[in-house]
Amino acid sequence: MTSLRYISTRQGSRPPVERLTFEEVMLAGLARDGGLYVPESWPTLSRTDIAALRGLSYVELATRIIAPFVGDTFDAVTLARLVREAYAGFDDTDVVKLKPLPVDDLYVLELFHGPTFAFKDVALQLLGRMLDTLLKRSGRHARIVGATSGDTGSAAIEAVRDRAAIDIFMLHPRGRVSEVQRRQMTTVLAPNVHNIAIEGTFDDCQDLAKACFNDLPFRDRHCLTAVNSINFARVMAQIVYYFDAALKLGAPDRPVSFCVPTGNFGNIYAGYAARAMGLPIERLLIASNSNDILTRFIDSGEQRLSGVTPTFSPSMDIQVSSNFERFLFDLFDRDGRALAAAMEDFRATGAMKVTAAQLARTRQTFDAGRLDDAGTLRAIAEAERETGELLDPHTAVAYAVARQKRGDRKVPMVVLSTAHPAKFPDAVRQATGEAPPLPARLADLATRPERYEVLPNDISALKRLIDGVSVFA
Ligand SMILES: *Cc1c(COP(=O)(O)O)cnc(C)c1O
């Protein structure tokens, strides 16, 4: 069997055309032509293949689903070990938890049972281990530089803590992340974890991180890498829970729909991938908060930029969904040149329109709905009253959209739950009058010792700090 290769969504726009292995994709991040990597073709499973997956444990299922994507990069024994270790730290033995809700034949799929109580752990716990293994194998060491507004930083830190081949430098805006979010990062005292509080805003942090990557000698000297949501390995790991939930609900004999609280489109794109692989998914519902560029696209066929509004669901506060380009690549019949031209035009004008035929094709798979902050609070209260479940604000948006757009009652609808409600105590308290209790594993968070450096918003200070950390510290 020849190994699966990856191509850029803008392939052909700037020759040469590259066909990368999984290992190369893991280490590369963004493609040189500005595109994102996608598999040259999707591995497909027949109905019989899918039926044969019934009853597997999550770890066994993950190993099977992921194997064709990694190709020769990991042998079967190594892959099985990496997957097992990635999910050993989850507080639910099933890794993810599917619960029926007593309304509208809805289900909720809890993806927040990892170390930081957010769904990003599902992908990052595996990605961190894969990256560490690849680096060690080739005697290399890499440094991750990232910026966080609070939520994703801790998942990235937990994913690489204590890994010998990786140092992580995570920038957060000083005084502008919640205490729980800061402590989830700064109480990780592993020697390879470097938390940096920047005297500035989240945008300043992002600009500093970008400036590190744009300094090519600096980037090469430190083998800089990112673990952001455009890394294909994250999509790959997320495909698994779509299969897991659908199998539990009767796949391949019964179709299933999913409603996904969407920001960068990474999570829901994994559902699209599962469908492309043969899983009978009827509909994928995009749930947006007031930052609704994708919902407006589904309504009108036009992506149009507007500013970002802060909401109760900050991980969905986006201007552009980066992973959406992966879907557009298919919508453009995998014509990388045409897509590159459209994306450049989008960047220049702030708008991009697809044809009526392309919009009709999009709607065969996707539908979308939005919910503002007032609606989010009502949805949290309503879900608690009607189902007994306390939902975090991101999940609450999806819950409300799933009910708005319920569709065919014979098809079960699964709402993806992306964070533990205790991560967003203010919104939950406003909605229900009670703050959700911190999970036992975080109970002593407020008293654990912290470690972080404070730096001015100054690129040379940051580079000096990174230069000063020795690899063998
Ligand atoms: C990241 C995140 C999302 C958005 O997921 P995307 O893959 O970016 O669409 C939703 N909810 C929570 C809690 C998140 O952390």
Give the bound compounds: pyridoxal-5'-phosphate
Radius of gyration: 21 Å
Look up the CATH topology of the domain at 97-117 and 232-432: Rossmann fold
Fraction of residues in H or I helices? 40-55%
Mean pLDDT: 94
Total strands: 15
Query: Alpha-carbon distance between the termini?
Result: 43 Å
Beta-strand share of residues: 15-25%
Computed structural class: alpha/beta
Number of helices: 19
- The CATH architecture of the domain at 97-117 and 232-432 can be named as 3-Layer(aba) Sandwich
Major β-sheet annotation: 6 strands, mixed
Largest sheet: spatial strand order: 3-4-14-9-10-13
Low-confidence spans = none
What is the CATH C-level name of the domain at 97-117 and 232-432?
Answer: Alpha Beta
How would you sum up the global shape?
A: globular
List keywords for this structure.
Rossmann fold; alpha/beta; 473 residues; 19 helices; binds pyridoxal-5'-phosphate; 6-stranded mixed sheet
Short account of what is shown:
This protein is an alpha/beta fold and about 475 residues long. The chain has helices spanning about 20-30, 45-50, 60-70, 75-90, 120-135, 150-160, 180-185, 200-215, 215-220, 230-250, 265-275, 295-300, 325-330, 335-350, 355-365, 375-385, 395-405, 425-430, 460-470, and strands at about 5-10, 35-40, 95-100, 105-110, 140-145, 165-175, 195-200, 225, 255-260, 280-290, 300-305, 350-355, 365-370, 415, 455.
Could you characterize what this model shows?
This protein is α/β, with parallel strands linked by helices and 473 residues long. The chain has a domain at 97-117 and 232-432: Rossmann fold, CATH 3.40.50.1100. 44% of the residues lie in helices and 15% in strands. The chain is built from 19 helices and 15 strands. The protein has helices spanning 22-28, 47-51, 58-70, 76-88, 120-137, 151-160, 179-186, 202-214, 216-222, 232-248, 266-276, 293-300, 324-331, 336-349, 356-365, 373-387, 393-404, 425-432, 459-468, and strands spanning 6-8, 37-39, 97-100, 106-110, 142-147, 166-173, 193-199, 224-225, 256-261, 281-288, 302-304, 351-353, 366-370, 413-417, 453-456. The strands form four sheets. A six-stranded mixed sheet has the order 3-4-14-9-10-13, sandwiched between helices. A hairpin with a 5-residue loop joins strand 3 (97-100) and strand 4. Helix 10 packs across helix 11 (266-276). It binds pyridoxal-5'-phosphate. Pyridoxal-5'-phosphate binds at residues 118-120, 151, 229, 261-267, 315-316, 394, 418-419.
